[in-house]
Design brief:
By secondary structure, the protein is of the alpha/beta class. The chain has 2 domains: about 140 residues, HAD superfamily/HAD-like (Rossmann fold, 3-Layer(aba) Sandwich); about 55 residues, DNA polymerase, domain 1. The chain has 12 helices and 6 strands. A 6-stranded parallel β-sheet has the order 3-2-1-4-5-6, sandwiched between helices. Helix 11 links the parallel strand 4 and strand 5. Helix 2 runs antiparallel to helix 12, helix 5 crosses helix 6 and helix 8 runs parallel beside helix 12. The longest helix has 17 residues. The protein binds magnesium ion. The site of magnesium ion has 7 residues, from loops.
Length: about 260
């Protein structure tokens, strides 16, 4: 049926598919590099999706904005000041927290009773100049049918600042942040479950986008469709494994492909 729709599609659709092809590669084609890639929209069966769930950092804006470099410096300063260490030793401690507790904040909270709100305000006090407004992303979010939410290990204030700079803040009905997650960061399963319970939706009707592939594991286990947004950093992961259903080098292009597929459904 999809084939017949393709045959009737106009030249503009052909151009759109070609563009999408270059920016979105389905998982199976990543692994079978010998095989010629098929049209990406053929594997985008998203008619069952009613909830579009997005990570924030390096997902809704490109990783090359490198906001994390600024946040990372602020985290380093915070740890150094709080534990009275030099920056180098604070960095070592920070990596231990990340490894043992998932985030530096979790380590500081569990081991030193740090006030998480004070910490979040400090580390997210950054320059958003690298983030450009994204009218194309805003346009495609407007076209997406269903609910749109943000699920971030950062703070609501940071998410509001960033989405405001992108010009997309009005598309989201909710931001489920690290405080809403009871400061249990992704990929802990509990915040995923709490998010679905509080916002009253099911995993099977949800597609989740995140640049860290390990954050997709609980999502897939719960029944969500998952999209990995490669971050080109070690902690982004390699995108391998059954929990990664799709790969989107460019989230806007992926969503445009999704909208095109839904329109012809
Ligand atoms: Mg992220």
């Amino acid at each position: 049926m999809f084939q017949s729709r393709l045959k009737n599609a106009g030249f503009s659709r052909y151009l759109a598919l070609t563009l999408i092809w270059t920016t979105y590669i389905p998982m199976e084609n990543q692994k079978k590099s010998q095989s010629p890639p098929v049209s990406s929209t053929e594997s985008l069966e998203l008619d069952h999706i009613n909830v579009w769930l997005f990570d924030l950092d390096n997902t809704l804006y490109p990783a090359h904005c490198n906001l994390f470099a600024q946040i990372d410096r602020r985290i380093n300063e915070y740890v150094a000041q709080f534990l009275d260490l030099n920056l180098e030793n604070a960095r070592v401690q920070q990596k231990l927290y990340f490894k043992e507790h998932g985030t530096t904040l979790r380590g500081l909270m569990l081991e030193h009773n740090v006030d998480p709100h004070h910490y979040m305000d400090y580390v997210h006090d950054i320059d958003l100049a690298p983030v450009d407004p994204s009218p194309d992303l805003s346009a495609v979010l407007h076209q997406l049918p269903g609910r749109k939410l943000i699920f971030t290990n950062g703070s609501t204030k940071h998410a509001e600042n960033v989405t405001g700079k992108l010009g997309i803040e009005h598309h989201f009905e909710a931001i489920f942040d690290i405080a809403a997650s009871d400061f249990l960061p992704k990929p802990d399963t509990l915040p995923y479950q709490k998010l679905m319970l509080e916002h009253d939706f099911d995993a099977v009707e949800t597609i989740f986008f995140d640049d860290m592939d390990r954050n997709l594991e609980p999502a897939a286990a719960l029944g969500m469709t998952t999209v990995w947004v490669p971050g080109h950093a070690d902690w982004s992961g390699d995108g391998e494994g059954d929990h990664v259903h799709h790969i989107a080098e460019d989230v806007t292009a992926f969503l445009q492909a999704a909208v095109a597929g839904l329109k012809t459904a």
